[in-house]
Structure formats: structure tokens, C-alpha cells
Amino acid sequence: MLTVELDESRCAATGQCVLAAPDVFDQRDDDGVAVVLDDAPGRERHGAVRTAAAACPAAAIRLVES
Ligand code: SF4
In angstroms, rounded to a whole number, what is the distance separating the alpha carbons of residues 17 and 2? Predict the structure, then answer.
């Protein structure tokens, strides 16, 4: 299982995570900070989630394997 954690305090509201994995991430309307839509995405989304985490310039996305 892959769990997605987001450190909002680090997020720089750049949106790369949303571009990479729009089913898993969104951005708040008011300040652009990312939100996690699905913190335990299915296997079919793991590739996109890993791409999103790698693309985040603020290292705000942590993926926990269990
Ligand atoms: S890519 Fe990182 S910094 Fe940019 S919106 Fe997503 S979590 Fe925030």
C-alpha cells in the first residue's frame, strides 16, 4: 500500500503535483496550496503519484510504502 502525505507548510503552490496526478492532488482556490484527494491511491495511480512527488520543487510530498 502507498500512502500520500503532504506537508502544507512546505507547499509552494506551484501545481506540478496536480498536473502529474490530477486524480490524487488538487489546489485550494484561495491560496493554491495543494490538497490530497486520495491519500491511499490504487496501483494504477502509483506511477503518477511518484512522478508528482519527484516533480514537487518544495519536497512537500512524502510517499509511505507499507
Ligand atoms: S508540486 Fe509541491 S509545491 Fe507544488 S503545489 Fe504540489 S505539493 Fe505544493
Answer: 16
Ligand 1 centroid–CA 42 distance in Å is 21
4 lines ligand 1 (CB under 6 A): no
pTM of the model: 0.97
Pocket test for ligand 1, best of 5, 17, 62 (most atoms within 8 A of CB): 17
> Measured from the CB, is residue 24 less than 6 Å from ligand 1?
no
What is the arithmetic mean of pLDDT over 32-53? 98
Residue 10, C-alpha cell as written in the block: 512546505
Total domain count, the chain: 1
Domain range spanning residue 50?
Answer: 2-65
Residue 33 to residue 42: CA distance in whole angstroms? 23
Q: What is the CATH number of the domain that holds 22?
A: 3.30.70.20
